[in-house]
Amino acid sequence: MAVKGSVPYDPQNVFARILRGELPCNKVYENDYVLAFHDIAPKAPIHVLVIPKAPYVSFADFSQNASEAEITGFTRAVGQVARILQVDGPGYSLLSNVGEEGGQEVPHFHVHIFAGRALGPMLPE
Ligand code: AMP
């Protein structure tokens, strides 16, 4: 079910629970700023989520309220994860859903990395 992409942050959301180690994840990469792990219901042969470790609800919240260091750290980490996945050559898509009309289901900011096949048109008709 889609959620609002606005504050307040819900500390019981599934990604907060993964960050606290209460739920498992299939980890790809981790540093001071981010955790990256495989999506539990992949929509492409490679489908990885990159999330900040700090509690931001959505891209809207992150872009407005994160520090310069957090924004830089997150952006660089997304590129690093793509290199780890070896998808730079063939290419990949990034997506971040925000709020109800954006189709956001988990209210912790995340970027999807999709890869592993030709991904077709940007959005369904
Ligand atoms: P969004 O619609 O952008 O909020 O996407 C949320 C994504 O989180 C979906 O692609 C889900 O399949 C994924 N997801 C939900 N729970 C988990 C989990 N426990 N581990 C990994 N991915 C998850």
Task: Characterise this structure.
The active site is at residue 110. This is Histidine triad nucleotide-binding protein. InterPro entries: Histidine_triad_CS (IPR019808), Histidine_triad_HIT (IPR001310), HIT-like (IPR011146), HIT-like_sf (IPR036265). A motif (Histidine triad motif) lies at residues 108-112. It comes from Gluconacetobacter entanii. The chain is α+β, with helices and mostly antiparallel strands. The protein has a single domain (14-115), classed as HIT-like (HIT family, subunit A), CATH 3.30.428. Helices cover 28% and strands 19% of the residues. The protein is built from four helices and five strands; from the N terminus they run αβββααβαβ. It has helices at residues 14-19, 59-65, 68-85, 99-102, and strands at residues 27-30, 34-38, 46-52, 93-95, 111-115. The protein has a five-stranded antiparallel beta sheet, with helices on one face. It is globular and about 40 Å long. It starts with 13 loop residues before the first helix and ends in a 10-residue tail after the last strand. The model has no long low-confidence stretch (mean pLDDT 96). Bound molecules: adenosine monophosphate.
Structural class assignment: alpha+beta
Give the terminus-to-terminus CA distance: 21 Å
The percent range for helix content is 25-40%
Mean of all residue-level pLDDT scores: 96
Give the DSSP E fraction (strand runs of 2 or more residues): 15-25%
Radius of gyration: 14 Å
For the sheet with most strands, the description reads:
5 strands, antiparallel
CATH superfamily: HIT-like
Q: What CATH architecture do you see? A: 2-Layer Sandwich
**CATH class term:** Alpha Beta
**Spatial shape:** globular
Q: Largest beta sheet: what is the strand line-up? A: 1-2-3-5-4
Total discrete domains: 1
Domain HIT: 14-124
InterPro entries: Histidine_triad_CS, Histidine_triad_HIT, HIT-like, HIT-like_sf
Pfam family, one: HIT
Protein name: Histidine triad nucleotide-binding protein
